[in-house]
Amino acid sequence: ILTILGNSAVLATAVKRSSLLKPPELLTVNLAVADAGMALSMYPLAIASAWNHAWLGGDTSCVYYALMGFLFGVCSMMTLCAMAVIRFLVTNSSKANGNKITKNTVCILIAFIWLYSLLWAILPLVGWGYYGPEPFGISCTIAWSKFHNSSNGFSFILSMFLLCTVLPALTIIACYLGIAWKVHKAYQEIQNIDRIPNAAKLEKKLTLVS
């Protein structure tokens, strides 16, 4: 309930001030869509199955649940990655270059994120990788047990782990470390105001970045 209410509030606010949204803020909206989609499509089944102490439904509902989880999960991860990259680019660019990130660019990026997520989500349905129950039997996801038992499962899980988890995570870490370093250097420069003619502007920009 809290997940649905919280993300619905974000979406309602975005609709209310849609004309005022800056391009990077569309990624926040996309993240809210992914999180709300996960809550609506997955949580009721998971909660009911947990109370039942066993998965409710058969193989079809299991595949559906795993598909939704993978789709929205990868979408959330890639959206967070895109947000980090854009923040890094804006932080390390001049104001003129920062304004080059247009709504069309972000919309294309969001479309790519969904297509990328959908591709990975449907791969197990077309023969690469598998979906199945989790060890406790009250939810479904990627069949992790196939990592050791099948070359097909091994290659899929390894590829998915690298391209949907490790690479985005490293990108996020690198971007925020870069932002932190930029903030650190700016603070060092502010220490000597006499050498900075636009100290007030720099301090204001630094505050916004922080």
What does this structure look like?
The chain is mainly α. It has one domain: Rhodopsin 7-helix transmembrane proteins (Rhopdopsin 7-helix transmembrane proteins, Up-down Bundle), CATH 1.20.1070. The protein has nine helices and two strands. It has helices at 2-16, 25-41, 43-52, 59-91, 95-98, 103-122, 146-149, 151-190, 199-209; strands at residues 131-133, 140-142. A two-stranded antiparallel ribbon has the order 1-2. Strand 1 and strand 2 form a beta hairpin. Helix 1 (2-16) runs antiparallel to helix 2 (25-41). The two termini are 31 Å apart.
In oligomeric terms, what are we looking at?
Answer: single chain
Q: What characteristic shape results from the CA principal axes? A: elongated
Mean pLDDT: 85
The largest beta-sheet arranges its strands as: 1-2
Rg for CA atoms: 21 Å
* CATH superfamily descriptor: Rhodopsin 7-helix transmembrane proteins
Taking the alpha carbons of the first and last residues, their distance comes to 31 Å
Count of DSSP strands:
2
Query: Which sequence of SSEs, written as H and E, runs from N to C?
Result: HHHHHHEEHHH
Structural class: mainly alpha
The amount of helix comes to over 70%
CATH class: Mainly Alpha
The CATH topology is Rhopdopsin 7-helix transmembrane proteins
What portion of the residues fall into strands of 2 or more residues? under 5%
